[in-house]
Design goal:
163 residues; alpha+beta; globular; Thiol Ester Dehydrase, Chain A; 3 helices
């Protein structure tokens, strides 16, 4: 698969949970299946300005927008690893993963180590995510991930065991 194919698959994965207008992923820049690492371009579009607000300062991406991108990036990385049957992900059932994705049964525990810098809406930005390790605990599959880009941190993504 090439970057375009991965981008199409990523949009399909996200389309199971999000309406098209809030999928902020625009392009997968790099996906390294062996290192379990992905780099993605995102873009948050500004809201249309009306009346006197036409000349207002451009709005910046909010913290909530960054979190939305983080969730989307996580779903895409784990989804691509499952689809490509990488290591432990060979055992995970794709249909059950997408069901949990749709039903919001995937949980995040995030620790921000660097707050996002101001990025204006309509400007593309790149986020990078790598799966560091994983473990089975309390009948859940826990993925430990590292994030870099305009926002940095580490977090855990937890989903029910879906063999």
């Amino acid at each position: 698969m090439n970057g375009t194919d991965y981008t199409k698959l990523a949009v399909q994965i996200l389309g199971k949970r999000y309406p098209a207008d809030i999928i902020h992923l625009t392009k997968i820049v790099n996906f390294d299946i062996d290192d379990k690492k992905i780099s993605v371009l995102f873009q948050i579009n500004s809201k249309p300005k009306k009346g006197k607000n036409i000349l207002a300062e451009p709005e910046n991406i909010s913290s909530q927008n960054f979190l939305d991108c983080l969730y989307q990036l996580s779903f895409v990385l784990i989804g691509l690893l499952i689809k490509n049957k990488q290591s432990i992900f060979k055992k995970i059932n794709w249909c059950k993963f997408t069901k949990h994705l749709i039903e919001s049964k995937i949980v995040f525990c995030y620790k921000c180590e660097k707050l996002p810098r101001e990025i204006p809406c309509d400007s593309p930005f790149e986020l990078n995510l790598q799966l560091l390790n994983y473990e089975i605990k309390n009948l859940n599959f826990a993925c430990h991930l590292a994030l870099s880009g305009p926002i940095e941190g580490s977090y855990e993504l937890v989903l029910p065991i879906i063999y």
